[in-house]
Each structure stands twice: as C-alpha cells, then as structure tokens.
Specification:
The structure is a single chain. The protein has 254 residues and is of the alpha/beta class. Helices cover 39% and strands 15% of the residues. The chain is built from ten helices and eight strands. β5, α6 and β6 form a beta-alpha-beta unit. The mean pLDDT is 95.
Length: 254
C-alpha cells in the first residue's frame, strides 16, 4: 500500500505571536515544493494564529494543524487542560499524544495515552501516538518495550482504517542528543511495529498506518533514516522551527 509521506513539526514551547505567524506562513508557502503531507503542531495559544496564517490568501494551504496534547475528558474542572473538542474547534486535524517529554515530566502512562487517543478519535482527530525506549539497549529488549507500549497505548482504541492513526517511534535517548539509531536498527524496529499493529488490528489496517521516526532527525541524517522501509515520515522538533530545514526533511521523505 502506498502511503503519503507525513512530516509533523512539533514546535513545543517556543515562539511568540509574530514568530508563529511568520513561521506558519513560511511553511504554507513550501507545500508545492514537496509531495509530503505537512502538519505543524504549535503551542496552544498559537493555534488560532497559525490556523489563520496557513489559510490566508485566495489559495487555501494544504498544511495541516495539530495540537501537542489533549485531556481525555470532554470538559470539566481540569484547570490548565484542553479537551479534544476544543482543539478540534480550533481547526486541528491531528494531536500528538504520549510524547516522551509528557510521559517523563507529566507522568503520563500508556493507559492515559490510550484514553486520550480514544477521545481524539471520537472528535475526528488523528492521534499521533508516541512510543520509545528511554535508554539505549539491545534490540530484543527495545522491541519488547516498544510492543508493550504500543499495545497498552492503543488499548480500547478502535479505528476504521489505518489512516485514522499515526504512530511515532522516538527513542528517548536520541531526542536532542544528536545520536540516532543506525539504519540497520530502524530496519528491524519499524517492520516490527507494523507487524505488531497487524496483530492488534489486522494487516489491512496496519498497512495504512503511517509510522514516523522522531529523535534528533535533521536535514543531515534525514536521507538515510527516511529511506528505511516502513518509515513514512518524521516527527520533528527543533528542525521544524526553520522553514528551510523543515522543507529539507520533507523532501528527504518524498
């Protein structure tokens, strides 16, 4: 099955309104230079600014908008949280869930991630479910960790087609370190993830799920990493804060 490459920019907690507007407009301007699908996930206060920027002008941009998190509840007394209906109402199509930083700093468990994924799908959001081992280990141990995380993070998450779900593999030890797994390691990990998805759902659904790599993905290493079979794109951190580097990675995926 042919899957459209997907490049997701996670802006994390960076920027102010003028920066958000300029960067979003810049990303909107490069969509015709790549066949990859581009999605940007800015901080919550930036959603309206970015939505306006990527839809400005007579010709609508194809850039997708995503949030960096949602709460699993639809509404309630959850000060500081946002719900899936809220971000959907802001024009989001995607939401990042279970990012390693939230798992580490906010104590998010696989069970919480699964509940959030259910809420996302119920509100027509495509969850980008993040998994990854925290320390570098042998491949057998890494695969066992990934299988456990993936199964538990998708517990009760029902999808109709593979296009309803994105899975991002981010080895935590690689994020922000400049150290990445070898292409040979990734060539083992990603087919394993797709096989696990086939066991959770079925082969047809698994074949449609886009699998992303995240963790120190840059224009310098994107060609090698994104050439690996079963890698359908990337979840980009720092490199997504510059239009040129974001485009370079998109073109590597393409």
């Amino acid at each position: 099955m042919k899957r459209t490459p997907l490049i997701v920019g996670n802006w994390k907690m960076n920027g102010l309104p003028s920066f958000w507007q300029e960067l979003a407009a810049g990303v909107a301007g490069i969509t015709k230079q790549t066949n990859a699908e581009l999605v940007i996930c800015p901080p919550f206060p930036a959603l309206s600014v970015v939505h306006a920027a990527i839809h400005a002008g007579a010709e609508k941009s194809s850039v997708g908008l995503g949030a960096q998190n949602v709460h699993q509840a639809e509404k309630g007394a959850y000060t500081g949280e946002v719900s899936a209906p809220m971000v959907r109402g802001c024009g989001c199509d995607y939401v990042i869930l279970g990012h390693s930083e939230r798992r580490a700093m906010m104590a998010e468990t696989d069970e919480i991630v699964a509940a959030k994924a259910v809420a996302a799908i119920e509100n027509d959001l495509k969850p980008i479910v993040c998994i990854g081992e925290t320390t570098r280990s042998d491949m057998d141990q890494a695969l066992a960790t990934l299988e456990k995380q993936l199964r538990q993070s998708l517990q009760g998450v029902h999808i109709k087609t593979g296009d309803d779900l994105v899975v991002a593999y981010e080895p935590v030890w690689a994020i922000g370190t400049g150290v990445v797994p070898t292409a040979a390691d990734l060539a083992v990990a990603f087919p394993f993830l797709r096989k696990t998805l086939a066991n959770i759902y079925n082969e047809e659904v698994a074949a449609g799920v886009r699998l992303l790599y995240g963790g120190s993905l840059t224009p310098d290493n994107a060609d090698e990493i994104l050439a690996v079979d079963d890698i359908d794109g990337g979840l980009i951190g720092g490199a997504s804060l510059k239009v040129d580097s974001f485009l370079a990675i998109a073109n590597a995926a393409d």
